[in-house]
Structures are given as C-alpha cells and as structure tokens.
Amino acid sequence: MDKSIHFPNLGIHLENVGKTITIFGFDIAYYGIIIAFGMLVGVILAYNEAKRTGQNADNYIDLAMIAIASAIVGARLYYVIFSWETYKDDLLSIFNTRRGGLAIYGGVIAAVLSVYIYSKFKKLSFGQLVDTACIGLTAGQIIGRWGNFFNREAFGGYTDSLFAMQIPLNMVYVSDVSTELANNSIMINGIEYIQVHPTFLYESLWNVCVLCILILYKKHKKFQGEVFLFYLAGYGLGRGWIEGLRTDQLRFMGFPVSQVLAIFLVVISIIIIMIKRKRIKN
Prior knowledge:
Layout lengths: L4 E3 L4 E3 L5 E4 L2 E4 H23 L5 H24 L2 H4 L16 H19 L3 H19 L1 H6 L13 E4 L10 H5 L2 E3 L2 E6 L2 H19 L8 H18 L7 E2 L2 E2 H25 L1
C-alpha cells in the first residue's frame, strides 16, 4: 500500500507516512499521539498562564482532567450524532476512535460546560478560567490538527494552488472523495492520487495567527471572559471559511453544522464584546 504524500507545488515529497507506529508489538495511531501531545502542551500553557496571573495554578490541573475527558466524549458525540447513518447499524463502532471521528466543536462545547460546572462548584470566576484556558486550547488545536494529516482526512476539494496536497486514493475514506476529486485524480507511478486542499493545514496555520492575537489581546481585555469570546470569534471566522472547503462536512437537514455554528459564534461573540465594552465605558 502506497504511503506517500506529496505537495507538488512546494516541491515536498514524503514517501513513507504511516498511520501508526508499533511499540512493543502494539500499533499506536499517530492521530492519538498527536492529540495527546496537543492536550499536554495546552495544559502546560494554561498552567503557566494561571501562575503568571496570580491564580492557583493547581486548579487548572484538576480542571484539565475533567475538561479533557469531557472534550473527548463531547467531540465523539458531536461527530456521531451528525454522522448517524454511518453508525446506526454498527453501534460498537461508535467507540472506535482510531480512525478519527472527533469533532472539535463538540469537544469545545463539552469542555466549556465542564469548566462552567467546575467554576460554580469551586466558586471561581468562569470568565477568568476560560480566558486562561483558551490560550492552551488554541495551542492544542494547532498541534492536534496534524493528526488529520497522518489519517489522510479533513481535506478539501480539488485545487492546484501552492499548498495542493496529493494523497493516494486507496488511503482515504470513499465517502470523503467528491465527484470533483474523482474526476481530477491523477496517476503517478501506477498509483491513483487525488489532489486536495489540505484544510487541516489551513486551520493549523490560522490558529497560529489566532494564538498570537490572543496573547497580544489579553493585555488589553476589559472584562473576564473577553479573551475567550475573542477566541470564539477568531477561530470561528477561520473555521467558517475553511469548513466550506471540506468534503467531509457534518450536515443536518442539508446545512453544514460546524460552518453554521462557526458563523453564529462569530456574530454572537462580537456582539457580546461590543455590549460589555460599551457598558464598561459608560
């Protein structure tokens, strides 16, 4: 089975990109390793940010364990709910996440709910908690998106742009291959490739920009929770565009769920920021 991935217009040719690594006889998916590493980096950044702002940093270790567990469950539930046709005849496959199937927005929603409950239980500021955590969350997303690279998933339609990525057709899920991709497939050394938008890369790079802006913006926030609202707006702005390129959109009644949610969160977050800042000014 061909394991190569090419970025022809960048002159990058990777000949042996596997999906798993074998350790002591066990196959471990790169997807899981990268997601776990992203979470670890996110927790470390949130912990350091808590110390810098004079908070009890240990609260974020406790919160991380709760929020990460909630996020994994939420990300999977979100994906399964909006891909029910795939799982309804094989319910046990719901628990198989080795091939991906985690939706970031589901994870964020579940994590935020767990943070809210934690804040009430510990009598802490919810706004301050999410402001601190979103720095780590964004960094985790930057890293985590590369799990999609190894899984050959979360890609867009056909393109011949600078970042165009070529992947073997037999290494992707048939359901992710649009008619446009199939019609523009190419043969390289007897192997059929599709040439796609690497939307996972776009989102990772977009989140680098979001993280840089958040780091600068947090020094000028006027109220607790403002940085998190800015994260929702910034991430949502990019996700709303990038989601429109993807061939594996989760849909409900014909609407792309994550794209609609992203646009909604952009609008709502900006409105709340404007209203709160106006009240503070007055």
